[in-house]
Design a protein that fits this description.
mainly alpha; single chain; 4 helices; about 80 residues
Length: about 80
């Protein structure tokens, strides 16, 4: 029952939420300007993409900041 598709989907949603929170905290710590819809923009990414960006934030923060800025300032969203 714990391995049902429903629970897997719930775990994926929770991972996405947590990675998004971490990235928003990272953006604020780096002094990035956050648009009002920053959470929604990050929610468009899947969990593996968010996790990869979090890993970059730890290992190569300048690159992660550049990529995150690009995601949060996409034109025409």
């Amino acid at each position: 029952m714990i391995d049902s598709p429903f629970w897997e989907e719930q775990r994926a949603k929770e991972r996405t939420r947590l990675w998004s929170q971490l990235l928003l905290t990272f953006a604020e710590a780096r002094g990035l300007t956050l648009p009002s819809d920053a959470s929604e923009l990050l929610a468009l990414l899947d969990a593996p993409a968010l996790e990869s960006l979090v890993n970059k934030a730890v290992t190569t923060p300048d690159i992660a900041a550049t990529e995150l800025r690009a995601i949060l300032t996409r034109q025409g969203h």
